[in-house]
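Suppose a colleague, Dr. K., hands you the sequence of a protein chain of 188 amino acids and asks what its three-dimensional shape might be. Before reaching for any lab equipment, you can write down a predicted structure in token form. Begin with the sequence itself:
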Amino acid sequence: MLCGIDEAGRGPLSGPLVVAGLRLKKEIKELNDSKKLSEKKREELFPLIIEDSDYHIVFKSAKQIDEKGLSYCLKTAIEEIMQNVKADEYLMDGNTSFGINTLQHKIKADATVKEVSAASILAKVSRDRYMKKIAPLYPNYDFDKHKGYGTKAHVEKIKEFGRCSEHRYTFRLKALGEEKIGVQKNLF
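The predicted structure, expressed as tokens, is then:
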């Protein structure tokens, strides 16, 4: 049996990285890369995936990303999924195995492998719901609208109000005249 793994939130300026992995128990129609589905369709598929899979979802906070680095957070999230979802094979969307010998990887797996498509939907919906949930706690930032991604409106909010505890301080912005902090250490 295959466990598909994918993430949401690798590139945003704020909010968590969310990594999901799962084994499907039965076929689910209309699965695809979460980015190719409407928010409404992702929300419709989410409970079906939860019901018809063995899954595990891992959240890594902005603070953890700042302290440990994105690669480390991805690797440890994948390892946690592998400990919690038993499978014969593990397949991650993308072009790297993060130094995990038993992890396979495939570019565009989220659009071509149903288990990875389902994982991408779990990760994306979980992250979007989190950003909507925290939006009232940080009303200056409109997290419910841009979900923490580097939109022009979000950058303008950071210019006006600075960063909050949900922001990734190590993600530098040219628009704010910030210099790059240096190359992230390879921790695997």
